[in-house]
Specification:
Strand order of the largest sheet: 2-3-4-1-5-7-6
CATH superfamily: Peptidyl-tRNA hydrolase
CATH architecture: 3-Layer(aba) Sandwich
Protein name: Peptidyl-tRNA hydrolase
Site (Discriminates between blocked and unblocked aminoacyl-tRNA): 9
CATH topology: Rossmann fold
Structural class: alpha/beta
Largest sheet: 7 strands, mixed
Shape: globular
Low-confidence stretches: none
Site (Stabilizes the basic form of H active site to accept a proton): 92
GO molecular function, one term: peptidyl-tRNA hydrolase activity
Helix content: 25-40%
InterPro entries: Pept_tRNA_hydro, Pept_tRNA_hydro_CS, Pept_tRNA_hydro_sf
Number of strands: 7
CATH class: Alpha Beta
Distance between the termini: 30 Å
Number of domains: 1
């Protein structure tokens, strides 16, 4: 079983912002595989289903980004998964161009507060990630304002494509393994 967690912030004001890239990717997977992500538990909205023959739990923490680890810890404990192999986290990354993906099997938080929280609650950095590029903040912009903003029209198509590829990357991780998925998806868009 895989627990697939998309990071973001709950509430209408945050829908489709850069920081909610993880939520958007989970929503896409949910739509594609007919999984209802509408049950409240584990400090998240979650749903169970099957993706390409694999049992999955799709989850969107309701803790707000900086406390995402609380929800992830509850999910990992309840489903008794091996988080090093069966946890996949999707989230935004400002160090990647809009639309670019980067898959990693482990690593530091890289300044991302949601990932910092997950690392703190799991006690290690070894879990699979799908980073979705949202682009670097322009000079003079406040980082929080930038990540909580929406994509300009000129970048929406690239971002929609990135969400499709992020969903594909999750499927590839589960069916082909992490190394093969990284080889397929870790290239410029």
């Amino acid at each position: 079983m895989y627990v697939i967690v998309g990071l973001g912030n709950p509430g209408r004001q945050y829908e489709h912002t850069r920081h909610n890239a993880g939520f958007d990717a989970v929503d896409l997977l949910a739509d594609k595989y007919n999984i209802d992500v509408d049950t409240k538990k584990f400090k998240a909205l979650y749903g169970k289903g099957i993706i390409e023959g694999q049992k999955v739990v799709l989850a969107k923490p309701l803790t707000f980004m900086n406390l995402s680890g609380e929800s992830v810890r509850e999910l990992v404990d309840f489903y008794k998964i091996d988080e090093k192999d069966e946890l996949i986290v999707l989230y935004d990354d400002i160090s990647l161009e809009p639309g670019q993906l980067r898959l990693r099997g482990k690593g530091s938080a890289g300044g991302h507060n949601g990932i910092k929280s997950i690392i703190a609650h799991l006690g290690h950095q070894e879990f699979k990630r799908v980073k979705i590029g949202v682009g670097e903040k322009p000079p003079g912009f406040d980082l929080a304002d930038y990540v909580l903003g929406r994509f300009p029209k000129s970048q929406r198509e690239a971002f929609a494509d990135a969400l499709e590829r992020a969903a594909g990357a999750v499927v590839s991780i589960m069916t082909d393994g992490m190394d093969a998925a990284m080889n397929s998806f870790n290239k410029k868009a």
